Amino acid sequence: MSPSSRRAGGPSTWRAPEDLRRTLYLLAIALGMVVVLFLNLLAYRAGGVNLYVQVVLPVTMIPALVSLGWLLRGGPLDVPERLMFFTVNVQVFAQALLEEVQRTEPAGGTDLLYWSVVVNVMLGYLIFPNRVAAGYSAALFVFSAGVPWVGVALRDGAVSPDLPRLQLTVGIVLLFVHALSWYRGQFESQRSEVRVMEQLAHTDLLTNLPNRRGMYPAVEALIGSGGAAMLLDLDYFKRVNDEFGHQVGDEVLAWAARVLEAQLPPGGRVGRWGGEEFLMTLPGLDGPGAAARAEAVCAAFRTQSVAGVGVVTISAGLTLARPGDTLPTLVARADEYLYAAKHAGRDGWRGRVERTAALPAFPDV
């Protein structure tokens, strides 16, 4: 498991909502097909011709079948979303035109038609950006509201007093839908900006690791659950800056961050503590496990090299979390062991761990 997937929660976390939407779309399309079949059966038994039920709805089942196959094959959801959205709108357009063609009473429209317009507009705001959805909303309202008036003008017919009231009501509802969608967009934009600012405040831009502030929650969690902490420092880093320049020094820091991330155990975190120092949390590890991890980290630096620079080793101070520890006491103890590792010749680690046959324990300092 990569560090990035640990921070993000893993691919399965992100796929769950998509799988739910896919299932809902499959059920909705299947239910729609059953409804169309049922309506056609009723129309057949009633006799006569219902163009909307017997022609329009069956024709619009073709894109429904295409969407069904697409979903079953595991294709991206945006394709069937848009296809079925426009299919439903074709149904609304056809319903409006057929109602006007077949009308024998004063033009008044039906509540079902206009509230279908409202529902489709709301779906449009969920699928498309606000500007696109607003244009669609205006076009659909003008069309559905204009068809009866065109029919009245062509036929010189009568108008039901309910028609202006119904159209005005629907127009006001659509304006409210647009306003709510706009406010939602503003809220999401501000929330996104806050998240970005929080991330920047807790991230070291050079290494893309958590900075000192970003590591505080990981250290507090370690103290509460148990494990080990390791404070690390690149050996002779000032010499790298002096000989190769600060730009190369920055590249070495970024390289070190990648090496440390590759050595993280499950649930572990590593961050830049300051300068050339890094802090690594090792939750759930006992003394031998933490010692083995510290040895592996030092070996990873010892056996790799930086292009144009050579081998850059690292020293580490390792300590287990103790009852009553706080963030300052834990880090201070790790810093003491780091100083001991530097004093012992660098390229290694120091700390108090349980003695094992393979790994010697170092005394407290």
From TrEMBL:
A biological-process GO annotation: negative regulation of bacterial-type flagellum-dependent cell motility
GO cellular component: a single term: plasma membrane
Keywords per UniProt: Membrane, Transmembrane, Transmembrane helix
GO molecular function term, any single one: diguanylate cyclase activity
Protein name in UniProt: Diguanylate cyclase
UniProt cross-references to InterPro entries, sorted A to Z: Diguanylate_Cyclase, GGDEF_dom, Nucleotide_cyclase, Rev_trsase/Diguanyl_cyclase
CDD domains named among the record's database cross-references: GGDEF
Keyword Transmembrane included in the entry's annotation: yes
PANTHER family tied to this protein: DIGUANYLATE CYCLASE DGCM-RELATED, REGULATORY COMPONENTS OF SENSORY TRANSDUCTION SYSTEM
Entries under SUPFAM superfamilies matching the protein: Nucleotide cyclase
All residue ranges annotated as the GGDEF domain in the record: 225-354
Protein species of origin: Deinococcus grandis
Transmembrane segments: 24-44, 51-72, 112-128, 135-154, 166-183
